[in-house]
């Protein structure tokens, strides 16, 4: 099957299914699942066929034919595989979960377009193709975020699209500055041209090209859209948004730094500890992202916002690892990218399952769901173990590689930030665990049941993957080393269950055996120990008094208050305020124009005409 | 005077100065600027060829009552330009008039059937009888101006206006007097359609819109000028009807 | 080959005949106008292949070129009249069901004539004839504005005041030109324009600019636009915004590229356009009345077109022209759908449209297709023109201009998305009124939008040719005047 059709099929099928959906209610979700499954199968068969030829489509635009190129590399294969995989799981999840959701059909339409466009972005072989699909991706995800059920969804998506568009316009400007000099958009030609330019000029162009990707990846100082978008998007879209959309931004960064080896150009510029200053700044931004994301995540009362901030901080890790440009760093970044996709999708899906049953996202309104929804609880538990970086899960391995890379080069500040983020992540992932699943069951949730099987299935698959890659990272390393070869990066040594780091080897099989042993021991103790007694919710604090503010007494509310207090002043100084003030000033300017110019008086309008001539004459048209 | 008035005055004065500049430009050698009145180099200008009636043909003298089969057979130069050389512009102007009448009647449509605001106290005897005498004379004069438009000064716009005046007077003189709108409409349609149809027939017969397809005859004869007098009659009728319509609508509003 | 003058003559004939048809049947005028526009499209299609090879010049009344009025149809004019004929056909079809005004036949008369006037402005090769057609168009527009009774008169009065002032300036410009050159033919003036005193050229071109730009949507002159467009019936708003602006810009292009090609003036045009663009977008953002918002957006778009075209290079001009035609198509779609939504919701305020998409999905989709097209989403027609504009301005080294254009697009995005979000995702808060749903025009327009987005060469190839013709004045002059 031609590469072009991978992007084309989901989009066309989406429209057909959209019209079918008027007749048959579930056809869209099922058809989408079938299509994604088919694509997933086809794409998995493409593995190792890196030499299938480029495909071009000609698009007559200026006074010449412009070639839109599609190509397959190990790097793009990784992304299309992940995209269709995640798409398939989420489509299966939505079959049951969206029965009461009004905007169901538009959700599926946009979701399929989004999948198609991401495939297009990743398979693109030149910047124009990339840009076209990038725009479609932005727009379809905009509609997806807007279709969230909360009212804030509109404002969040608004912020998202405006930021993305500014980024896209910077990119298109840079592209056309380059195009006007070399008349092509091809990756290699652009890179060759940029390396010929003076260093400042090429760095400015590279920054303009990089900004849309950095915005999409949610890196500081452009992370302001992430929390709103993630928390307000439809519950089924949040996993994809966090698991994949953010990663497409990372794809762009990899593309620029390694695939189009702009790193080579940057090497000429000012260096800090052997690292080009651009990369170092990017790494610092990554590090700030980790810290900000972590601190803000801990403060949240809304579970989706909490996980959204956690996504921000995890993206910081990936950016940091990729920016330091060592083989180990690159490997760690890619590993964490895959692993984060897997465990973050799991977390969001399990939360979606909780929301599906409880209809709320506030942690203080839930509790004690562990016995009601055991599968969801297990999925969440395993995923947060991975996120916190505890063996034997995949999250540990990638974090381990990243630490090695950071310490190896001696970036103290970055390493400290990474450790801070790691400890912080213990805190914030534990908060939903203890408040949603543990603790006391709310009376109104007495009749809750586990979600249907079709919603459990994706969670099972993802749990299995977390453990599988936690034990056998060699499966991932195989592909990563192929990517490394493609990008001329020195491969990292590995076996099926071990990775060679800077300070020794990590053998996951041994660790796994130890953990299994430890777990069995603990389990035996748990079984043999005395059972604890269950206590009703209202017994906890009230002691018979009348409660007029029950929320304040719920222990989920302001869970880490002492910690938050330390960072209160930091959290108040939000970047969002700066962006908002800027936007408001523009609006005020427009209001001023409206009030002063558009008077609605015919005489004034006539006066403008004469005044216009006089001003033009004075400005030099006549004189 | 308040500030706004002064500002407006200054602006207008400045505008005047800038536009007057155009007249003060003294051209350098080989340059063109605005011509002073009466000093234009008529020989080299379009107008001269219109006067000679020799746009397509060679330059020959035009002699009153003798020259035959000139390009444009009307003795009145203005008419030959208006209804022949630049007939499309005239079609446009007639259309503008038609538009004005249509637009006005559309605006006034709702008020039309309400009670008339313009009420004469009493029919004035002198006015009534004077107009009875004047009315046919005005119609005659108007018709003459239209029909002789290609020979003598005047033309269909003027003639049409005169005819419309006749109806204005009639409407002023008596409140019983009513125009038959159906007849007006039929004349309006016929006049407009025949103008365009003459043009279209020229397209069919001679291959170009609004071409003269008749013999032009001897200059200054009544039956001369090809399609010019016919076009003039249609324009005259159209103008007369449109203006009458406007008056009628306004009187009734 | 059918003579192209018919596309002006037939609507006029139809307009003159309409009072008669109205006697026969009240429904007949709208059908006649629809048929006329259809025949016009047919005539243009029959001529298309020939004109694309070489420009057609029709000398009216069989008089020689500089003396008679001539109709010049080059590639630019050809594309313009093709777009105009398609859009006027669509609007005429829409009018079949949506023109139940108290004096319906008069509406169709005026509509038929305004179409003839628009064709005339685009095709004529004679400056006085241009004036006549501009008058026809504006006078017809005055009348059409008043058909929605409530506030139509006030808007029309403003329109008339500004229109008359600017027509005075236009007439003055024509008088000055005639006095200096001695001919009204554009080719003769173009040939002589190098000889005219440069100071005089500047005065004349300024007067021309003021006289025409009031119909082309450039801000201080087109300040009447929001009043008129918001009050007029939607079919009229789309005609005014889509077609009259198109004709106005085409006339400006003729004046500034064929007649007085003085590159030193392009800087002024660029600055005027840029200021008008930013102010237009900023004010559009403030509006809650959907039609006023669209009107300001039209102003901004026209200013964008003027700005880009006045860059004066090949790429920039073809990008600007493409945007011009896209805008005509998209604004027609936007105004028609907005009009239907207004009728359905019984209000013109955007905030009253919450969730309207669930009730009238196709109309809401039509509106959003129009908006996304204007914003330049890939595979909509606006994408290619936006890319071409960026390419053109960067190609000429105009970095600040590129920045301004893209900045304006961001503001534009802000206000269009507000509407889209409200109609699709807002809370349902409307009490529906009964409307006649007409889907055919919307579907046709949506198809055109995607057709041009996916196969832009349909229009970009002729556009490149048109740009080439615009930039070679000597060809224009020798085409019209022959070997003179």
Short description, anyone?
The complex is a heterotrimer of chains A (623), B (253) and C (484). Chain B has 253 residues and is mostly helical.
Report on the structure:
With 623 residues, chain A is mostly helical. The longest helix of chain A has 32 residues, at 327-358. Chain A has helices at 3-20, 27-45, 74-97, 104-123, 127-146, 152-182, 187-196, 199-217, 224-232, 237-259, 262-266, 277-299, 303-323, 327-358, 374-388, 394-409, 412-437, 453-471, 474-486, 508-528, 550-553, 561-566, 568-572, 575-597, 602-619; strands spanning 55-60, 65-70, 271-272, 275-276, 494-495, 498-501, 504-507. In chain A, the strands form 3 sheets. In chain A, strands 5-6-7 form a 3-stranded antiparallel sheet. Chain A starts with a helix and ends with a helix. Among the domains of chain A are: 270-527, no CATH class; 578-619, no CATH class. Chain A is globular, with a radius of gyration of 26 Å. The model of chain A has no long low-confidence stretch (mean pLDDT 82). Chain B is mostly helical. Chain B folds into 2 domains: 3-34; 77-252, no CATH class. Chain B contains 8 helices and no strands. In chain B, helix 3 packs across helix 4 (87-108). The two termini of chain B are 38 Å apart. The mean pLDDT of chain B is 83. Chain C is 76% helix and 2% strand. In chain C, helix 1 (6-24) runs antiparallel to helix 4, helix 3 runs parallel beside helix 13 and helix 14 runs parallel beside helix 17. Chain C starts with 5 loop residues before the first helix and ends with a helix. Chain C is built from 19 helices and 2 strands. Chain C has a two-stranded antiparallel sheet with strand order 1-2. With 484 residues, chain C is mainly α. Chain C has one domain (6-481). The A-B interface holds A 607, 610-611, 613-614, 617, 622 and B 8, 11-12, 14-15, 18, 21.
């Amino acid at each position: 099957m031609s590469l072009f059709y991978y992007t084309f099929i989901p989009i066309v099928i989406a429209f057909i299914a959209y019209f079918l959906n008027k007749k048959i209610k579930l056809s869209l979700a099922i058809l989408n699942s079938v299509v994604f499954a088919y694509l997933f199968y086809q794409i998995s068969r493409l593995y190792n066929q890196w030499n299938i030829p480029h495909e071009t489509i000609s698009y007559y635009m200026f006074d010449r034919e412009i070639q839109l190129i599609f190509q397959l590399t190990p790097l793009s294969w990784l992304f299309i595989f992940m995209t269709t995989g995640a798409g398939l799981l989420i489509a299966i999840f939505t079959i049951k979960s969206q029965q009461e959701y009004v905007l169901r059909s538009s959700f599926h339409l946009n979701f399929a377009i989004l999948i198609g466009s991401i495939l297009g972005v990743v398979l693109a072989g030149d910047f124009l193709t990339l840009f076209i699909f990038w725009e479609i991706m932005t727009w379809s995800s905009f509609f997806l975020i807007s279709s969230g059920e909360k009212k804030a969804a509109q404002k969040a998506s608004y912020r998202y699209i405006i930021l993305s568009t500014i980024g896209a316009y910077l990119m298109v400007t840079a592209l056309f500055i380059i195009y006007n000099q070399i008349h092509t958009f091809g990756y290699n030609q652009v890179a060759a041209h940029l390396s010929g330019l003076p260093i400042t000029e090429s760095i400015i162009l590279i920054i303009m090209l990089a900004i849309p990707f950095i915005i999409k990846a949610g890196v500081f100082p452009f992370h302001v859209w992430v929390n709103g978008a993630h928390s307000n998007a439809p519950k089924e879209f949040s996993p994809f948004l966090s698991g994949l959309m953010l990663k497409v931004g990372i794809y762009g960064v990899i593309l620029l730094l390694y695939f189009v080896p702009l790193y080579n150009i940057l090497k000429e510029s000012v260096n800090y500890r052997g690292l080009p200053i651009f990369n170092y700044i990017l790494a610092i931004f990554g590090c700030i992202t980790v810290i900000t994301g972590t601190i803000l995540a801990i403060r949240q009362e809304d579970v989706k916002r909490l996980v959204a901030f956690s996504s921000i901080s995890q993206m910081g890790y990936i950016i940091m690892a990729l920016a330091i440009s060592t083989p180990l760093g690159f490997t760690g970044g890619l590993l964490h990218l895959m692993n984060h996709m897997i465990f973050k999708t799991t977390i969001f899906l399990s939360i979606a399952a909780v929301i599906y049953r409880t209809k709320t996202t506030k942690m203080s309104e839930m509790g004690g769901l562990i016995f009601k929804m055991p599968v969801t609880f297990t999925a969440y538990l395993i995923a947060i173990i991975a996120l916190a970086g505890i063996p034997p899960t995949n999250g540990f391995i990638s974090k381990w590689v990243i630490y090695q890379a950071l310490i190896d080069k001696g970036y103290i500040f970055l390493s400290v930030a990474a450790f801070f983020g790691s400890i912080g992540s213990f805190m914030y992932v534990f908060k939903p665990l203890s408040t949603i699943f543990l603790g006391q069951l709310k009376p109104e949730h007495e009749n809750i049941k586990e979600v249907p099987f079709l919603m459990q299935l994706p969670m099972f698959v993802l749990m299995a993957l977390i453990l599988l890659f936690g034990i056998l990272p060699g499966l991932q390393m195989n592909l990563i080393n192929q990517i490394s070869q493609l990008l001329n990066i020195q491969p990292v040594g590995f076996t099926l269950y071990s990775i060679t780091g800077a300070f020794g080897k990590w053998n996951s099989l041994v660790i796994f055996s130890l953990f299994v042993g430890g777990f069995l021991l603990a389990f035996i103790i748990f079984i043999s120990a005395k059972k604890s007694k269950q206590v009703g919710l209202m017994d906890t604090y009230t002691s018979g008094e009348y409660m007029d503010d029950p929320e304040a007494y719920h222990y989920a509310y302001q869970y880490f208050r002492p910690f938050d207090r330390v960072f209160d002043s930091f959290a108040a100084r939000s970047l969002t305020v700066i962006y908002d003030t800027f936007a408001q000033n523009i609006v005020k300017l427009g209001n001023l124009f409206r009030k002063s110019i558009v008077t609605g008086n015919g005489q004034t309008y006539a006066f403008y005409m004469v005044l216009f001539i006089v001003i033009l004459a004075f400005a030099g048209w006549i004189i | 005077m308040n500030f706004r008035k002064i500002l407006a005055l200054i602006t207008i004065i400045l505008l005047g100065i800038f536009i007057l500049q155009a007249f003060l430009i003294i051209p350098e050698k080989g340059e063109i600027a605005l011509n002073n009145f009466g000093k234009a180099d008529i020989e080299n200008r379009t107008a001269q060829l219109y006067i000679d009636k020799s746009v397509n043909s060679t330059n020959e003298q035009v002699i009153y009552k003798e020259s035959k089969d000139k390009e444009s057979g009307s003795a009145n130069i203005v008419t030959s330009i208006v209804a022949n050389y630049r007939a499309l512009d005239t079609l446009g102007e007639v259309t503008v008039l038609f538009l004005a009448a249509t637009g006005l009647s559309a605006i006034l449509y709702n008020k039309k059937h309400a009670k008339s605001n313009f009420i004469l106290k009493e029919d004035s005897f002198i006015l009534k009888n004077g107009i009875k005498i004047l009315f046919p004379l005005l119609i005659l004069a108007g018709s003459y101006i239209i029909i002789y438009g290609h020979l003598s000064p005047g033309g269909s716009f003027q003639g049409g206006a005169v005819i419309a005046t006749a109806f204005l007077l009639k409407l002023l003189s008596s409140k019983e007097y009513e125009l038959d709108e159906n007849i007006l409409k039929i004349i309006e349609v016929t006049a407009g359609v025949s103008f365009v149809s003459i043009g279209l027939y020229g397209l069919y017969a001679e291959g170009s819109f609004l071409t003269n397809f008749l013999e032009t005859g001897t200059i200054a004869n009544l039956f001369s000028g090809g399609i010019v007098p016919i076009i003039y009659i249609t324009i005259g009728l159209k103008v007369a009807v449109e203006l009458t319509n406007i008056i009628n609508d306004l009187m009734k509003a | 080959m059918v003579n192209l003058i018919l596309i002006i003559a037939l609507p006029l004939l139809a307009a003159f005949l309409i009072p008669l048809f109205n006697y026969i049947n009240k429904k007949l005028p709208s059908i006649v106008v629809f048929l006329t526009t259809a025949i016009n499209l047919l005539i243009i299609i029959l001529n298309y292949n020939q004109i694309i090879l070489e420009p057609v010049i029709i000398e009216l009344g069989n008089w020689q070129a500089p003396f008679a009025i001539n109709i010049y149809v080059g590639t630019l004019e050809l594309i313009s009249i093709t777009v105009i004929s398609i859009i006027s056909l669509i609007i005429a079809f829409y009018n079949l069901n949506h023109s139940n005004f108290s004096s319906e036949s008069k509406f169709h008369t005026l509509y038929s004539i305004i179409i003839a006037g628009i064709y005339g402005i685009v095709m004529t090769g004679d400056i006085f004839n241009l004036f006549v057609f501009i008058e026809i168009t504006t006078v017809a527009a005055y009348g059409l504005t008043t058909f929605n009774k409530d506030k139509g008169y006030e808007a029309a009065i403003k329109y008339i005041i500004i229109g008359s002032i600017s027509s005075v300036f236009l007439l003055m410009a024509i008088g000055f030109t005639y006095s200096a050159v001695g001919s009204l033919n554009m080719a003769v003036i173009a040939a002589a324009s190098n000889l005219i005193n440069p100071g005089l050229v500047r005065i004349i071109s300024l007067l021309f600019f003021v006289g025409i730009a009031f119909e082309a949507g450039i801000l201080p002159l087109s300040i009447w636009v929001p009043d008129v467009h918001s009050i007029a019936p939607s079919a009229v708003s789309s005609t005014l915004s889509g077609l009259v602006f198109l004709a106005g810009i085409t006339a400006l292009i003729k004046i500034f590229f064929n007649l007085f090609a003085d590159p030193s003036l392009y800087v002024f045009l660029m600055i005027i356009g840029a200021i008008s663009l930013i102010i237009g977008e900023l004010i559009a953002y403030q509006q809650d009345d959907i039609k006023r918002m669209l009107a300001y957006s039209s102003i901004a778009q026209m200013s964008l077109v003027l700005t880009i075209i006045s860059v004066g290079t090949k790429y920039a001009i073809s990008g600007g022209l493409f945007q011009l035609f896209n805008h005509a198509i998209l604004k027609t779609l936007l105004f028609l759908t907005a009009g239907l939504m207004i009728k359905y919701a019984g209000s013109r305020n955007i905030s009253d449209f919450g969730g309207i998409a669930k009730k009238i999905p196709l109309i809401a989709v039509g509106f959003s297709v129009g908006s996304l097209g204007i914003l330049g989403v890939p595979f909509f027609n606006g994408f290619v023109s936006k890319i071409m504009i960026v390419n053109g301005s960067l190609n000429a080294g105009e970095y600040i201009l590129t920045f301004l254009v893209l900045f304006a697009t961001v503001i534009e995005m802000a206000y269009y998305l507000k509407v889209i979000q409200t109609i699709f995702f807002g809370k349902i808060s409307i009490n529906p009124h009964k409307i006649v749903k007409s889907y055919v025009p919307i579907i046709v327009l949506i198809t055109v939008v995607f057709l041009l987005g996916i196969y832009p060469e349909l229009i970009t190839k002729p556009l490149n040719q048109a740009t080439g013709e615009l930039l070679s004045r000597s060809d224009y002059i020798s085409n019209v005047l022959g070997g003179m």
